[in-house]
Each structure stands twice: as C-alpha cells, then as structure tokens.
Amino acid sequence: MALDDLFARELPELAIRWQAEAAPEPRLLVLNEPLASQLGIDPGWLRCGEGLRFLTGNLVPDGAVPVAQGYAGHQFGGYVPRLGDGRALLLGEIATADGSLRDLHLKGSGATPFARGGDGFAAVGPMLREYIVSEAMHALGIPTTRSLAVVATGRSVQRDTPLPGAVLARIASSHLRVGTFQYVAAAGDGGGPQLARGVLRRLADHAIARHYPDAAGAQNRYLALFDAVGSAQAALVAQWMLVGFVHGVMNTDNMTISGETIDYGPCAFMEAYDPETVFSSIDSWGRYAYGNQPSIAGWNLARFAETLLPLIDGDQDRAVEIAQQSLTGFGAQLQSALATGMRAKLGLAGDVAEEVATPLMNDGLALLAESHVDFTSFFRNLGRAARGDAEPARGMFMNLAGFDEWLARWQALNPDPATMDRVNPIYIPRNHLVEEALEAATGGDLEPLTQLLDAVSSPYDERPGLRRYAEPAPEDFGKYRTFCGT
Ligand code: AMP
Ligand code: MG
Q: Where does Mg(2+) bind (predicted)?
C-alpha cells in the first residue's frame, strides 16, 4: 500500500505530523469493497488484522507521513482563525489508475494539536451517518467525498452518555477548503505579507494542479481558479437543491475547493417541501436552511475571493472589481443549473419557453409548500402522472382544485416520464430510516444499515420489497433534529 505525502511536502506550513491514537479492539463495521477495488486496495487485506490497523491509522505504510491539516473558517458567520483537523488525519494520497490523486483521511483518530479541548474521537453513529449519506449522494450522482470504511475502535467515547467509538476512513479529491485559504491569507497578519503571499501562491498552485489544471494556462490563473471553484460549487449546490439535501453547516471550512460535498454532520434530506427547512439543533436563526444554501454558497465564495485578491491583481481596487464580476457570474450559473435541473425533474423538453417553464415551476413549488407535500415522492409520483396515472400525485394535495389546474398546464407540455425517472430518486436516506439503522448498529445489529445502504445505492431504480424506503417518516417520528461535531 503506497501513500504519497504530496500535501505535507508542498505545504509544510499547513501540516502537522501526527499519529493516530491506538484503537484497543478494532472491529470492521462496514467496508466499501467497490471503492477499495477502484483505489487498487485489496478488500480482503482491509478486512484482516493488518488492514484494520491500517484503517485506524495504527499501521502506517513505509514512506507515508500522516498529518493534521490546518485551516481556518467562518462558523455561522463568525471568523475562527484556527480550526484544523482536531480529530482527523490525512494519511496520504493514493494514486489512482487515471493518474489523479485521492486523499485517504481518517476521522475520529484521536486529538491533534488542533483539537481545541475536544477529545479527538468520534462515535459509531455519526461516522456511519457520514458513510450512509455520502454514499447515497454519490449514488445520486452528486460530487462528494466517499466513505471507504467505518471501524469500531473498542474505545468508549463520552458524549451525553458513553458511546462506542469509531474511525471513518474517507476518500476525497482533496481536503482543500475555503478555510485552508483563509488560514494562509490571515497568517500574513503575523508572519508578514511577503511570507503569506508566497505560501498563498504555493497553495493556489497546488489547488490548480490537483483540481483545475486548465487554469494553469489562463491569462490570470488565480482568477481562473476562482471561476472554476465557483462553477463547481454552483453545479454542486444546484444538485443539492434538486434532491432536497440540506447540508446543515455550510461554514467556510466545510466548503471544498474541489466542489465535492464534505462533512456530513447535521445534514438531512427535506421531506415536506419548505424552503425554511432546518434540521441542525444549533442553527437557531436558520442561516443554513434549505432555501438559503445558494446565497450562503455565494457568501462563502466571497470569503474565498478575499483570500485570492492579492494574487488576482496587484491593484486592490481592480482585484475587487474583477472578483465581484466573477461572483455575479456564480449566481447566474447556479440559477441556470437549478432551472435546467428543475425542467428535467418536470420532464420538460428543452424547447418549452422559459416564460412558460419558470412560472410553472414556481407555482408547482408553491403548491407543494402549501400542502406540505413530500418533495421526493411527489416528483416520483409525477412521473407516474406523465404515464397516465395522476392519482398518486393528486392524493398528496389538500388544495385539489389548485393542483388540478397546475396539472393540466403541465400535461399540456407533454412531459417525458423517462427523463423524470432518471433524475427523480425514489430512495433517499430518509431521516427515520437513518436513525433506525444507526441505533441498531450502535447496539450491534448491522442488518438495518446493510438494507438501507442497499436501497440508497441505486436510488433511481424502483425495486420490489423496498416500499418502506420510498416513504416519508411516519407522523409520530416528529420534528427531526440533528447535531454537529458529534
Ligand atoms: P465539524 O463541525 O465536524 O466541521 O468540525 C469543526 C471543527 O471542530 C473542526 O476543526 C474539527 O476538527 C473540530 N472537532 C469536532 N469534533 C471534535 C472532537 N471530538 N475533538 C476534537 N476536535 C473536534
Ligand atoms: Mg468540518
């Protein structure tokens, strides 16, 4: 098993060499065999004693240099200059068959110098939660970090109650975040602007080489980097919106440069359509509500732009002007991706005029909100309506007259059910089923987890026997609450 130490070599200012805490009694809970094979790692080896020590950071391959990565970030709008991997390690990079690199990263591997008083550990439930939701996102076709394995450590972790501890092995295109750039840009205040500028340039070049090699040939490569990140994030957040995903903690340290979804803490899928949907117990103002995600992404990108200004243009005013133009472009790209995606969800052909499609979409969403209709099953049922059976969709509305009027407008446009079924998932990780799987796994029963993973791994293919994975939570499940940093 060969691991590169590219990040540690190129950006030593951002890397602290560190070791994982020994796992007293490692036990494999879940292994992503297809992903392991794709990475050229033998799944059989990962399952054996050596493999488990590797997956918990206790067996470090020759030449690998595990590090905790430094980053800063705006958390709920407030700047924190030093966050970093408090309970995580970058073990190194794996070279894939196509020549690109993937980070192998551990979460829950023990406290690092960035721990800020935290214990450095993670519990089985939240690590399996990240495994389920990230793999569901991947199956939905949404860029995301992947989950390779969750290993129970045999250590008890103290939360409200003692819980079994675990380590998640995560795979990502990289762990560069907006907060990584903020960490370097802010270091200029202490280390002198020249030092900061040099590291910043090196960081930006590292990001370009890893993610956007085309930007290297641009006239203004750092502006090209900014534009590329903006495009990736516009596409990403639009995809979140189209499946009802609420990230829950879009702090700048949780926004990647690669455009992959990262850090599945308080995230959850919206059921009844409502732009104000919030699940996170600490997001009392709804900053990261479903409907706010596009504007928050723009806000985060503005923070990213601030870090790049000295590289974009020597003249500060000119740099601001250029970056502002780019940001306007980001908003337009996101809106356009949303409109295109929403057309596909409704099965509308490309030649349906915008003046017809846009009000139809908006009126449809207003009806969903008014009748508290489950977002995911509505679109799937609408596919059946496109095939001639409107009753399942119709039955979801209290305002029948309103829906019938809308339905007639939509049907007149000859929607295509095949397009709809390709983009409207039937199986998403429903909140009550995720909780059920985590609770069972924490108690030692992995069966519900296995079944849920099976359902969400092919989200668009309706299969017999999976009816309960397609339905919203029962009424008595109540209002869903999620938690950060657990
Ligand atoms: P997150 O909410 O997972 O994005 O984490 C935000 C910050 O808190 C990161 O710097 C984490 O490394 C840190 N953190 C979260 N939980 C712990 C923990 N149990 N021990 C140490 N650091 C933690
Ligand atoms: Mg984070």
A: 254, 263
Atom of ligand 1 nearest to the CA of 84: 10
Residue nearest to atom 11 of ligand 1 (CA): 86
- For residue 447, the Cα-to-chain-centroid distance in whole angstroms is 25
Distance CA 244, CA 272 (A): 10
pLDDT in tens, 327-336: 999 999 999 9
Q: Which of 75, 83, 262, 263 to mutate to test the pocket of ligand 1 (most atoms within 8 A of CB)?
A: 83
* Cα 90 from Cα 3, distance rounded (Å): 10
Instruction: Report residue 483's pLDDT band, with 50, 70 and 90 as the boundaries.
Output: confident
CB atoms within 10 A of CB 171: 22
Q: Which atom of ligand 1 lies nearest, measured to the CA of 121? A: 19
Selecting among 85, 103, 253, 313, the annotated active-site residue is 253
306 located within any domain: no
Residue type, 288: Y
Residue ending a domain, among 415, 431, 459, is 415
Domain count for the chain, please give it: 2
Residue 80 located in a structural domain: yes
pLDDT in tens, 232-280: 999 999 999 999 999 999 999 999 999 999 999 999 999 999 999 999 9
Single residue among 415, 430, 454 that ends a domain in this structure: 415
pLDDT at 190 over 80: no
107 marked ligand binding residue: yes
- Domain span holding position 373: 348-415
> Residue 61 domain-assigned?
yes
**Residue of 240, 242, 235 lying closest to 375 (CA atoms):** 242
Question: Which numbered ligand comes closest to the C-alpha of 266?
Answer: 1
Assigned domain for 373 exists: yes
253 counts as catalytic: yes
pLDDT digits (tens, 9 = 90+) for 149-162: 999 999 999 999 99
